[in-house]
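Entry 14. Structure prediction run on the chain below.
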Amino acid sequence: MNKLNQPSSDKLNQYPNHEDLKETDPEVAELVQEEVERVRDGIQLIPSENFASKAVLEVVGSVLNTKYSEGYPGARYYEGNTTVDKLETLAIERAKALFGAEHANVQLLSGGPANMAAYEAILGPEDKVMSMNLAQGGHLTHGAPVNFSGKKYNFTHYSVDPDTHLIDYDSLLKEAREIKPKLIVTGATAYPRIIDFNKFKEVADEVGAMLLVDMSHITGLVVGGVHPDPVPLSDVVTSTTHKTLRGPRGAMILSKAEYAKAIDKAVFPAIQAGPHENTIAAKAVAFHEASRPDFKEYAQQIVKNAKVLSEELLSLGYDLVSGGTDNHLMIIDLRKNGITGKVGAKRLDDAGICTNKNLVPYDEKSPFVTSGIRIGTPAMTTRGLKENDMVLIARWIDQVLRNVDDEKNIQRVKAEIAEFLSQFPLYLFLDAK
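Output returned:
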């Protein structure tokens, strides 16, 4: 068994048994246990999911959950925030130190509000913005027509090359010269390659635009030194604090000092009211964990695992968007396999392999059906799996996708996976068998 990032044996024997919950609400306790068993016995490959540490989860469920603290440290609208001020200040300082940022706002409840606040701080209604096309790897809050961002601001979307599926930086520059946007947004939810932030900075500088990087997916990789760092080059950086960073569900904004006041006002009082100080304190814990040497090992292992998983899938005959991966995720293009992403993801889930259906570039199917499946390695890397284990995962994926109508095969794979994973306790939890 690989013990990368695994706790000591004594901690593995401290599984939370939820005794209070069982007594108060047995129905919810049963459902929580059901979810524990689903995660414990299955392969979690959704790239945006991960396992937070026991320390992070303890703080999320702590007494801090009860405190109202509208405002910022030293300037609250409620009394009793002396300790909370210390904790939030600690989170801010740790974020600034970890990312080398001039300013950090750690109150954001999730990635959507983080982008909303960033736009609120630096844009006016109908201002021109360039971002990646949602259907080709961008995010809903990067100007999708159904989202607030697409309704309030004037977004134009750059695309990936139809053949290579890579960002065409020459085309990006040409479009930017024509559009002259006030803001260029980069960052993605389904782009399996390194993003060249230096080139984005060059384009932004040439056309007089500001640069915003949404690094939510790759934050842990940036900290671990396996992806270029956008913070020194960007005016504003937004990020969630879970995903590869492996903290609590939440978000943050990092920025140059000149935007600090506008960003803080955009978060509170413009968009949010009472911050969740329990989550903010948990972010402080996560920033501390990410500053340790073993976090770099974990980030490096994410990329190693993704490389092997992609190479094995390619050797089994599958098409991958862009032909592989440089980061933590990849997208299987199922068009030649005769099944949709919707069907493939559902049957994989039935077999204990959790993924999500995803559009491929220039997909002719709808977002509810799709031609692809998005998979990633953060969660299973946290759980302790390494390169050889990725070979097994690829083969299980292949066995399911080649036989989507074979129920006996699905159940066989599911049983094999559960047996295999019995040697890998959940991160900071005991295998509850």
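The chain has 17 helices and 15 strands.
Filed with the rest of this week's runs.
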